[in-house]
Amino acid sequence: MRERTIASHFARAVLGGARRHGYDYSGLLQQLGISPELLDEPRARIAPEQFTQLIQALWLALDDEYLGFGQAPSRPGSFAMMCHAVIHCRSLDKALNRGLLFYSLFPGAPRLTLSREDEWVRLSLDDSQLWDPDHFLSESLLVIWHRFGSWLIGQRIRLEQATFSYPRPEHGAEYDLLFSCPLEFSRGQSSLLFHSRYLAMPLLQDERTLKHFLERSPADLLSRPDDGDSLSSRLRRLLSRDSSRWPDLEAVAAHLHISPQTLRRHLREEGSSFQELKDQLRRDIAIYHLGRADLSLQQIAEQLGFSEPSAFHRAFKKWTGLTPGAYRAQES
């Protein structure tokens, strides 16, 4: 499946800590092929690998895995050392508690805690002391701990709820990709809720798999949106199997053994629509090929099901704020 693209908001947000510390990142953006024009366009998207490289480069430049958003810096290598400290734990419960204990040893580190609520477990973050105007570090810490825990046990931990201590941000639509669960804003704390059964599960990873995991993590964990259990995620996986043939809503509903009306209603409840999902997938496939220069604009238009290139040009500009030609030019 083609990787989902990353909203330009997150690239702008991650640069906030660098700006705060007076770091000139213009050369870094040029090196990564990310143009300032792209960052200034609210609808624009960047490839996941570009986002991973941007985060990794900023860690080194700022000498801080918190990217300038914490009370105190977290030296590069801290996350890797924590992973080595937990990899031989017998259960996820032991691993998470040891990992959180590791970070609690550092003065000024964001405070994360695990607590039981009947058969549920809540991972809570105290983000009250962070300098984090775009909530980038808060989002990152919750996402990283959820996906790191899922990686340790070899299966996705299903989230029941995510709460946030702040109002729904302007980029709130992206939260479904980050957390794939019911969201609540302006709550007393930022937290994730999941079933306690996961805590008893054994770790399926070891030193060998950890070495490969750490080559791109935790940046990779942030760059890979969470394809969870929602109908929207299932439909995206179904549509992406063969993007040369785009089934209509009736055909997809028949495949899922439900009526078209039921499919529309379920998508509406998730805040989405069939056309919106299809357009998001076509946008991401177009960006994938535009960044690699492996197909001409006409070939990309044909693969995406457009009868003529001009229709593709209009649609792509509507999706991203840039024409396909302009997008390819700034990527090269």
TrEMBL record:
Keywords: DNA-binding, Transcription, Transcription regulation
InterPro entries: AraC-type_N, Homeodomain-like_sf, HTH_AraC, Tscrpt_reg_AraC-type_HTH
Annotated transmembrane regions: none
SUPFAM superfamilies listed in its UniProt record: Homeodomain-like
Coiled-coil boundaries: none
Gene3D superfamilies: Homeodomain-like (1.10.10.60)
Protein's recorded name: AraC family transcriptional regulator
